[in-house]
Design brief:
heterodimer, A: mainly alpha, Amino acid/polyamine transporter I, 72% helix, disordered N terminus, B: alpha+beta, Nonspecific Lipid-transfer Protein, Chain A, five-stranded mixed beta sheet, 24% strand, globular
């Protein structure tokens, strides 16, 4: 190609990638990352705290709050449209160490979601095949091994496939729920009495409803492949609508056909709804939907978390071995360790049967992250004049409101016991604090040692002549 | 600020380092991409055509439709292509901006990591 034609090409394609992500795919990514198998349990948790048949109202309020999150992340993502954005805006607002502590803690939600999904899908498969309960853990391990093997081979899902899977999951859930609503069932009781079990209980229902949208904001990690910045903004606002539709339909269907106490004690309420709506066909239908959610969770979760670990290791904030690549350029140790930790967490959940605790921990972690992001935006409105392609309307007020409210919701879910909703439990908050404490100790004590070791290694290499600056010196 | 000749010299060295590294070639054997680079301080632009892991051509200006667009200052590009810096911290600080899929961004960093693991 001549220089002239090269210039013409550059003029015509100044910013266009050959393969870029549009609104449909980005929205599927947002909704797909959020709508996991754990969401079915999440809906049951919402219904547990919401009085009567008012779960739908809690989910509606949760959806409206998710729009606040959409606005906050849209502005922050516009300022730093990169996969590393979360690190950049938190470090700009609160400092580098705080950013590392928060993102390390944040990444533990990925492990929790992978472990929870592996457990829930394993339990669903075991139930449908009518196998002994112990075999559920075999299924959990099998799912994790398959996901690990696919990741190690560098097999990732194409955007279009991901879109098809996500829209199938959402449509499948809505359709079966609508069929359920056409059947004769339980007459709804007090559909507006969200706070009928007390103010705290209603507040906890909203906190768990917000958890149904958890991880939809991870679509910002695809900002670098978006056709234009507005694609991510649109996905951040449309994704929650799709999640709200599916979660509301499922909540209404469940309330209509499955008694609360039956759904509450089950690890597979979606199968119970399928059974009640369409018998065996409904069970298989919802099992199919459940297994499909795993594709998104494992594909997206492993990818986001392992690449985060790789980047942190390359930066010197994690041991160098986590950056080791296999012959398919996959950070194999990061993938294997993530899978192993997920398997251990899955085993603990399997042994204790306390899957609802995972929901509470996830809800507390996610609300905390939303509070931190809102606080970061509040501060950056005062301290940063960086270009903002999207500017949140009434930004300081909305971000301030979000920071306070999401912190309150984090406390509400952190001190809840979804297993016995009338009781308070500090277990979720203690687990979140424990994860935060481990991250803090790691960042304050271990990371400086890693940095010192790396500096010593470089100095030794320079002194021995093994490593010299390769770039030729320019004449003065 | 580095002029085009310096960037070009660094790019030539990088091309040799990449193409002669057997492990890298094997690792990137399924990686065929067109990369566009933009120096945000000099406005210089250049392209790199990678086919099956081999850099088959580089040159000033933008050719073809890019799979990845990398923007940084000219000094950073020179240091990166000479292997004098680890590009990841600069990427995480927003000093190197990349447009492309996460997988491609990681592959790009992997090149530097495989050739100069101690940078």
């Amino acid at each position: 190609m001549s220089e002239d034609s090269a210039a013409v090409v550059a003029d015509h394609h100044p910013h266009h990638l050959r393969r870029s992500v549009g609104t449909v795919t980005a929205t599927a990514t947002s909704a797909g990352l959020a709508f996991a198998a754990i969401n079915f349990i999440g809906v049951v948790s919402v219904a547990t705290f919401a009085a009567g048949s008012s779960a739908w109202l809690a989910i509606l309020i949760g959806g409206l709050l998710a729009f606040v999150v959409s606005g906050v992340f849209s502005e922050l993502n516009g300022m730093w449209p990169t996969a590393a954005g979360v690190r950049l805006y938190i470090s700009s607002a609160f400092g580098v160490r705080a950013a590392l502590i928060i993102t390390l803690t944040y990444m533990t939600t990925v492990i929790l979601v992978i472990a929870a999904d592996a457990f829930l899908i394993g339990a669903a498969i075991q139930h449908v095949l009518d196998e002994p309960p112990a075999l559920a853990y075999v299924w959990i391990l099998a799912l994790l091994v398959i996901a690990t093997a696919l990741n190690l081979r560098g097999i990732t899902m194409a955007g279009r496939v991901q879109s098809v899977v996500t829209y199938t999951v959402l449509a499948g859930t809505v359709l079966l729920s609508v069929v359920a609503l056409t059947k004769p069932g339980i007459v709804p009781e007090t559909p507006f009495a969200l706070f009928g079990n007390g103010v705290m209980s209603g507040f906890q229902a909203i906190a768990f409803a917000l958890f149904l949208f958890a991880a939809f904001e991870w679509v910002t990690t695809t900002a670098e492949e978006a056709r234009k910045p507005s694609v991510i903004t649109r996905a951040l606002f449309i994704g929650p609508v799709l999640i709200w539709l599916a979660a509301t339909a499922f909540a209404l269907g469940l309330d209509h056909l499955v008694p609360k106490d039956v759904a509450h004690g089950s690890a597979y309420p979606q199968l119970l709804l399928g059974q009640a709506a369409l018998g065996r066909v409904g069970v298989i239908w919802m099992l199919g939907v459940t297994v499909l959610t795993a594709i998104n969770t494992f594909n997206g979760g492993f990818l986001v978390a392992s690449r985060f670990v790789y980047a942190a290791a390359r930066e010197g904030n994690l041991p160098r071995s986590f950056a080791k690549l296999n012959m398919r350029a996959v950070p194999w140790l990061a993938v294997v360790v993530l899978a192993a930790v997920s398997a251990v967490v899955g085993a603990v959940v399997f042994a204790t049967g306390r899957w609802l605790l995972l929901v509470a921990v996830g809800a507390a972690l996610e609300a905390s992250v939303f509070a931190i992001a809102s606080a970061a935006l509040l501060k950056l409105r005062r301290t940063s004049d960086r270009h903002r392609p999207f500017r949140l309307w009434a930004g300081p007020a909305v971000a301030g409101f979000g920071a306070v409210l999401f912190a309150g919701l984090a406390l509400a879910s952190g001190f809840s016991d979804p297993e016995i909703p009338t009781q308070f439990s500090a277990a979720p908050a203690l687990i979140v604090l424990g994860l935060g404490a481990v991250s803090t100790v790691y960042v304050l004590l271990v990371v400086p040692r890693l940095h010192r070791a790396a500096a010593a290694r470089r100095a030794a290499a320079r002194a021995s002549g093994e490593r010299v600056r390769r770039r030729p010196q320019r004449p003065a | 600020m580095a002029n085009w000749d310096e960037v070009d010299e660094a790019l030539a060295d990088y091309t040799v380092s990449c193409n002669t590294n057997e492990r890298l070639r094997k690792m990137q054997r399924d990686w065929t991409r067109m990369l566009h680079f933009v120096c945000n301080d000099t406005s210089d632009t250049f392209s790199m055509d990678v086919r099956a892991g081999e850099i088959v051509s580089t040159g000033q200006g933008h050719t073809g439709v890019p799979d990845i667009i990398v923007t940084a200052d000219s000094e950073t590009f020179c240091d990166m292509f000479w292997g004098d810096i680890n590009p990841m911290p600069k990427y995480l600080r927003g000093e190197i901006q990349v447009r492309g899929s996460q997988e491609d961004i990681m592959r790009l960093d992997a090149i530097s990591y495989v050739i100069w693991p101690d940078a």
